[in-house]
Amino acid sequence: MDVLTQAEENYLKAVFKITENDDKSASTNAIAAMMSTSAASVTDMLKRLSAKGLLHYEKHRGVILSERGSELATNLVRKHRLWEVFLVKMLHFSWDKVHDIAEQLEHVQSDELVERLDVYLERPQFDPHGDPIPDASGKMAMRKQVLLSSLDPGDQAVVVGVQESTATFLQYLDKMQLSLGTNLRVLERFDYDGSMKIALNDGTEITLSHKVCENLFLQKSK
Amino acid sequence: MDVLTQAEENYLKAVFKITENDDKSASTNAIAAMMSTSAASVTDMLKRLSAKGLLHYEKHRGVILSERGSELATNLVRKHRLWEVFLVKMLHFSWDKVHDIAEQLEHVQSDELVERLDVYLERPQFDPHGDPIPDASGKMAMRKQVLLSSLDPGDQAVVVGVQESTATFLQYLDKMQLSLGTNLRVLERFDYDGSMKIALNDGTEITLSHKVCENLFLQKSK
DNA sequence: TCCTAATTTTAGGCAAGCCTAAATATTGCC
DNA sequence: GGCAATATTTAGGCTTGCCTAAAATTAGGA
Ligand SMILES: [Mn+2]
Ligand SMILES: [Mn+2]
Ligand SMILES: [Mn+2]
Ligand SMILES: [Mn+2]
Hints:
- The structure is a homodimer.
- The radius of gyration of chain A is 19 Å and the shape is globular.
- In chain A, strand 5 and strand 6 form a beta hairpin.
- In chain A, strands 3-8-4-5-6-7 form a six-stranded antiparallel β-sheet. Chain A has a two-stranded antiparallel sheet with strand order 1-2.
- By secondary structure, chain A is α+β, with helices and mostly antiparallel strands.
- The first copy, chain A, has three domains: 6-65, Winged helix-like DNA-binding domain superfamily/Winged helix DNA-binding domain (Arc Repressor Mutant, subunit A, Orthogonal Bundle), CATH 1.10.10; 82-142, Winged helix-like DNA-binding domain superfamily/Winged helix DNA-binding domain (Arc Repressor Mutant, subunit A, Orthogonal Bundle), CATH 1.10.10; 146-220, Roll (SH3 type barrels).
- In chain A, 41% of the residues lie in helices and 17% in strands.
- Chain A has helices at residues 6-20, 28-35, 39-51, 67-90, 98-105, 111-120, 167-175, 210-213; strands at residues 55-57, 63-65, 146-147, 156-162, 183-190, 195-200, 205-208, 216-220.
- Chain A contains eight helices and eight strands; from the N terminus they run αααββαααββαβββαβ.
- The interface between A and B is medium-sized, with 19 and 19 residues.
- The structure holds manganese (II) ion (4 copies).
- The site of one manganese (II) ion (MN) has 6 residues of chain B, from helix 4.
- Chain A binds a DNA duplex through residues 5, 7-8, 27-29, 37-45, 48, 59-60.
């Protein structure tokens, strides 16, 4: 039906990401920042995507995705995350290396490919960073997760995701022995700088900065 | 090092394919035909690729790939064929469906991805159509294969490849129960129209047109 | 060899995506 | 409410890849 260029797909995804949390519209500047491009280029593209009915654009008002645009963006996210699972699970890439490759793979056009990949990977619900994978109809699993920074001393929890998934952050977590599935217990929280002291299952005690605590998703286990 | 656009990569591959059998140069028209584009567009691109040192171009003389261009084209062929193996072996696509998807996947840029894919697939030597897969250094297996049309009555042989790999031809072979690895015996050759009667292992006897016989590669087994 | 047909190149143009600089609209603060 | 800062759009331009039509070159047959 609609075959979009990679550029168009990338813009849709940017709008999707910006609007998925806070439901407001996506501003020209926000999109430009996310895509590392100029505001002028964004305006250009927004007009074209609007003409194709993929988003609603009014001068100076920001944009929101149309029904169709939202479907396409969700499918891109699905493909991106499925490929990340493939790269980690089958090709044994580490979780900090897969994003850039998935950025390319997500643009491959073939519904049958996506379906077969999904089956092959045994219909995974979450990607290597703990992000939920939409199913073919766009629905995705919800999980009651909280930021480490919101836990209190005594809380026991398991790491289920990362808020940020830059290579540097992921590599830092590797160094700290933290990965998805890691169990930990909160020992202390320092109000002075928001850092926290936690204990891992093997008894190791580590202190994590506020920034780290704001980027780790956990599920309370007690 | 050189990061090429998909268009540039496709032109390199076209030149590679045209020149790989008969070692002469690739003509503008031949490239245009292979890429379903105009001769003017080809001339345009040849100049650009020549400026990048990927091929040798002289007006009205056709082109040949440079050392570097040949390396890049070979690597593309490697990626294309590895992805085809993945699609058939892992995702259970039929051999007539994989080419178009591999045309897209071959442009994904990541040497590590190719290497890991190769390992994962257990370093296959041939793709689902029997075509040899170049290794990381560009070398590929040679096989002494002949066209079915060159066999004589009494010859016993095994199907190892297809000359043409269009979806219609591959589907025809499926219908005829012919696939890579199929053993057959030549019963008769009709000089009138070049068709041949062959017997399969299960005793089935079929007659194949000259066109089919000219597109099937076999390895004699007796 | 000469002339015509076929091939190839050039010229001119267009759309997609990007850019910078300038113009305009909106926001927020006094 | 008015004005300055900020956000956004417009204008003009560039490259890549494509097109058609016209010009130039090459090849092949008489
Ligand atoms: Mn990612
Ligand atoms: Mn991810
Ligand atoms: Mn192929
Ligand atoms: Mn093949």
